[in-house]
Amino acid sequence: MLQQIVSELERIRDTERAPAMEAYMKNRFVFLGVSATPRKNVFLSVKKDWTQLTDSARWDFIDECWQHEARELQYIAIDALLSDYKKRAAHTDLPKIEFLLTQKPWWDTIDLLVSHVVGHYAKSFPLEFAKTAAEWESSSNFWLHRSLLIFQLKYKQQTDLALLQYYISRFKWNKEFFVQKAIGWALREVSKWNPEWVRGVVVSENLQGLAKREALKYVAAV
């Protein structure tokens, strides 16, 4: 299946588009030059094969995609996961998910995996997630910190506000752009239905700069 995907991506690659895609990702990855819609169509052409794989074979496929040089293959892996993860999630998935979060990490893969895959896993297997979340919290990897800040993005009114504020308090000291952005992003989502709580958190946590601007984007300034 992987070879079929690679062959098709090679066939439709756009060498003129690739440099711009690489520049957009700060030249951290090699791109074939295949944009989102045609790439997703490539996955759709093999989706039936994907659905018939065993759980073990599915993760083997994802790992093979992750090892490939072309960034589009990591996107294909995420396309595959997101296509049916709510049906196929297993309590043993978290170490594999953590691997994806810490290998070749950048916002383009992290944010999709966290908001959809990690978010669903945390709801489905709260005890298992809580144990690993404690390890992520003490990790030096800021991508794991970002993950803890944004895994509830799709929860809406089911967001655990106390837990979110706890992580904000834990990580607000880190001036890394992607951490500060995550704090603001998470609060901005909550502000859509609970702006007063967001105002209170901005004040009580003394948020400044990017985190504060993002948090208050939809509410009156504090």
Structural write-up:
This protein is an all-alpha fold and 222 residues long. It has helices at 2-12, 18-24, 36-51, 55-67, 71-88, 94-102, 107-124, 126-138, 142-150, 161-171, 177-191, 195-204, 209-215. α4 (55-67) packs antiparallel against α5 and α9 (142-150) runs parallel beside α11. It is globular, with a radius of gyration of 19 Å.
Classify the beta-strand content into a percent band.
Answer: under 5%
Helix content: over 70%
Q: Largest sheet at a glance?
A: none
Distance between the termini: 54 Å
Which secondary-structure class do the elements indicate? mainly alpha
The CATH topology label of the domain at 129-222 is: Leucine-rich Repeat Variant
